[in-house]
Amino acid sequence: MTTPLRRIAVYCGSRPGNSPAYTGAAAQLARTLAEAGIGIVYGGSRNGLMGALADTALACGGEVIGVIPDLLNKHERAHPNLTQLHHVASMHERKALMAELADGFIALPGGVGTLDELIEIWCWAGMGSHAKPCGCLDVNQYWQPLFDLLAHIRHEGFSHGEQQLLRSDDPQQLLALMTAY
């Protein structure tokens, strides 16, 4: 029996990236989740894709919970209008609280921090720490190099049979894959 998706943690950049498609995808994902009655747990910033995600979900009446480490709050500035905002002492605490609050995980385009959060939560699934779906919203094939690397890892015999990392370029299709997981 699958657990309903009440909240999804979304990992994404605190910068907008070089393509307007990234901001558009963050807004489209936020609308899709809000319309489905699924809350968002994210990094708490008002900048970049994080801000676009939060602003759109809030405008659509969605629940948005931010989790921001004190160190990042000095640089990124927390979003002032969230449903809830949790201040934590470290990135480790942020990751653990986001994992606790969410029923699934989606990565939008982002930098090394986004990649770190995605790989860690997916690794936790592979080790049996949770059975929640993990996926990538593959805007303009942003995540293709990662999937190429994962295929290379499997080909070279270093894969442990990890849990499936879901992927789609369409938020509704990705949500359907996660719901069926």
UniProtKB/TrEMBL annotation:
The keyword Hydrolase applies. It comes from Venatoribacter cucullus. The keyword Hydrolase applies. InterPro entries: LOG, LOG_fam. One of its GO terms (biological process) is cytokinin biosynthetic process. Pfam families: Lysine_decarbox. Belongs to the LOG family. Its EC number is 3.2.2.n1. This is Cytokinin riboside 5'-monophosphate phosphoribohydrolase. One of its GO terms (cellular component) is cytosol.
